[in-house]
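Much of the work behind modern protein science is quiet bookkeeping, done one molecule at a time. Below is the pair of lines this work produces for a single protein:

***
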Amino acid sequence: MTGFVDTHCHLDAAEFGDRQADIVRDAAAAGVVRIVAPSVALSNFDIVRTLCKQYPGCFPAYGIHPMYTDAATPNDLQILRDYLQQHRPVAIGEIGLDFFIPHYDQTCQEHFFVEQLKLAREFDLPVLLHIRRAQDTILKHLRQIRVQGGIAHAFNGSRQQADEFIKLGFKLGFGGAMTYPRATRLRDLAATLPLESIVLETDAPDIPPDFLEKGLPNEPKYLPRIAQTLAELRGMPLEEVARATAANSIAVMPALGASPL
């Protein structure tokens, strides 16, 4: 079987402690051959880079997450720029907008988002987008600052919004949320969107799938079981889902293809 690609896993998360070696090993045993590890702030660029150098099959992305922009400074953007020059990642991320968190500063979030889109354009890199209650605002900025594409992580928008992201060269990330039977709108999207527009992700340790015991952290090793839900929704073999979503991941993040699947 073609290996699976987890396009979004916070490998450095505190919930994992020092279990990264086990997590990567268990993922590989389950057939997950690529893991993309986004950063969220300047403070974890180095640890994400170190982990990805330490564990084959793990690839870093660097960016400032919207939930961390309040604490970021203009100098952080310069350091990010230097990082992109010296340690080219597979993508810039996790970046975006979050209008769900309490007392958010929209102006600050949009400033850092726009500046990071400019860096993505300058370095010709895809972006990993965090989007909560901000689909249309994100799309507005993407139309103004064209980048090579990327992934709308944990996609939860409408079909119309999905189509707009696809037009702009983006893939849509589906993960644990899709496994919940009551997530009817999301499951309908997973079943009916063009297969070439879909990639798989865990967002580990977050967004646990329906089958995971409550309180346990999500892990990349669960991705094939998440993918089984997609296969069932689309009425197709799991192997075909693995092949297609892996190819989609490499298409949108070409650096993932640096070594064979």
In short: The domain at 4-258 is CATH 3.20.20.140 (TIM Barrel). The beta strands are 4-6, 32-38, 58-62, 91-98, 127-132, 150-152, 170-174, 198-200. The two ends are 10 Å apart (CA to CA).
